[in-house]
Amino acid sequence: MAAGSAAPTSGEYIVHHLTHLNTTGHAQKAVVDWSVLNIDTMFYSIVLGLLTIFVLWLAARKATSGVPGRFQAAIEVLVEMVSDQAKGIIHSAESRKFVAPLALTVFVWIFFMNAVDLIPVDLLPKIGEMFGIHYQRAVATADLNAALGMSLGVLLICIYYNIKVKGLGGWVHELFTAPFGSHPLLYPVNFIMQMIEFIAKTVSHGMRLFGNMYAGELVFMLIALLGATATVFGFVGHVIAGSIWAIFHILIITLQAFIFMMLTLVYVGQAHEGH
User: How far is CA 148 from the centre of its chain?
Assistant: First the structure.
């Protein structure tokens, strides 16, 4: 909240922390509003994207054929895990040259964006207030705009591989003849079913990531409110609950990054297969 303002109620505290810094200059009314730009989401996603590139570049630069250090060993385990998953899903070695590094980048990038949720709830907002920024949300993946934006990116990649593997004519033919057959009367039904499949996969891909991170963000806010009760019970409960949830949340942020990466591989793999 702005300096000098009265202490907020619990509801005001949560609403304030769920309000984006955006191009309208006031609180965002809708969960998804593509008429405005959420500056905080863009800032943190770009910064963490650059951090992802730097970490992977540093790992490649320091790679050695000798005994690896802890950092190189950790990256090698991650690379091997992604490579094994890609080989099991995408059988084209040529496609894996692009898709496997993409999946690795997606995993690390989303992990970093999710991990911001482990930073104390009020730390970054307080730092922002020192520079006159009174609204910001640091967890980019808890913004449905960002989550759906990434899933739309995966959809575009799937469309690209559908056309590359099957040819434009072959893909269009598949849109109208699968899954029920090539009878002309079934063309409209097949096309509608294909569109429903594309939309459902894209929406569920983004919603799964957003829902888990948004819920985790709310839990941290509720725990922070517990610590603001100015009682011994509230302080002790805040420390215990916050520690337990933070440890559990490490699993969540890793799992959500892994699930998004795996679904990316699965959807791209499906684009290589015919019905």
Answer: 9
Name the 3-class secondary structure at 38.
strand
pLDDT value at residue 2: 44
How far is Cα 45 from Cα 47, in angstroms, rounded to an integer?
Answer: 6
pLDDT in tens, 164-184: 999 999 999 999 998 898 889
**Which residues have CB under 8 Å from 56's CB, separation 6+?**
75, 104, 105, 108
Write the DSSP string, 47-99.
HHHHHHHHHHHHHHHT--SSS--HHHHHHHHHHHHHHHHHHHH---HHHHHHH
**How many angstroms separate the CA atoms of 56 and 52, rounded?**
6
Environment class of 99 (CB within 10 Å of its CB; exposed 0-12, middle 13-18, buried 19+): buried
Q: Is 199 exposed, middle or buried (0-12, 13-18, 19+ CB in 10 A)?
A: exposed
DSSP annotation of 32: S
Q: Which tokens sit at 82?
A: 């992604």
Q: What is the DSSP letter of 272?
A: T
Residue whose token pair is 């950092």 = 71
Residues 178, 112: contact at Cβ < 8 Å? no
**pLDDT by residue (tens digit) across 118-155?**
998 889 988 998 988 888 899 999 999 999 999 999 99
pTM: 0.89
Nearest of 219, 203, 197, 200 to residue 151 by alpha carbon: 203
Query: CA 266, CA 241: separation in Å to the nearest integer?
Result: 36
Question: Among 114, 162, 190, 212, which one carries the catalytic annotation?
Answer: 212
Phi, psi of 150 (to 5 degrees): -70, -40
Instruction: Give catalytic status of residue 145 as yes or no.
Output: no
Asked about 114 being catalytic, the answer comes back as: no
Annotated catalytic residue 204 = yes
Give the bridge partners for 38, in sequence order.
Answer: 22
